[in-house]
Amino acid sequence: QKNGISNGTLYKKKFVEHFEQAPMYVAVLTFLGFGVGTVFGYLRDFMRAWGLEKRNIAAEREQQKDFVPLYQDFENFYTRNLYMRIRDNWNRPICSVPGPQFDLMERVTDDYNWTFRFTGRIIKNVINMGSYNYLGFAETDVNALKTVTIELQKYGTGICSTRQEMGTLDKHVELEKLVAKFLGVEDAMVFGMGFATNSMNIPALVGKGCLILSDELNHTSLVLGARLSGATIRIFKHNNMQSLEKLLRDAIIYGQPRSRRAWRKIIILVEGIYSMEGSIVRLPEIVSLKKKYKAYLYLDEAHSIGAVGATGRGVVEYFGMSPDDVDVLMGTFTKSFGAAGGYIAGKKDLVDFLRTHSHSAVYATSMCPPVAEQIIRAMKCLMGLDGTTQGLQRVRQLGKNTRYFRRRLHEMGFIIYGNDDSPVVPLLLYMPGKIGAFARRMLEKNIGVVVVGFPATPITESRARFCVSAAHTREMLDTVLNALDELGDFLHLKYSRYSKSSHPELYEETRLELED
Amino acid sequence: MDIKSMKNYLYWLYCQFELITCSYLMEPWEKLLFYTFNITMLVMVFYTAYIFVPVHVSTAFQFFLHLFGNQRENTVSVLK
Question: Which parts pass through the membrane (chain A) (predicted)?
Answer without folding.
Answer: 22-43
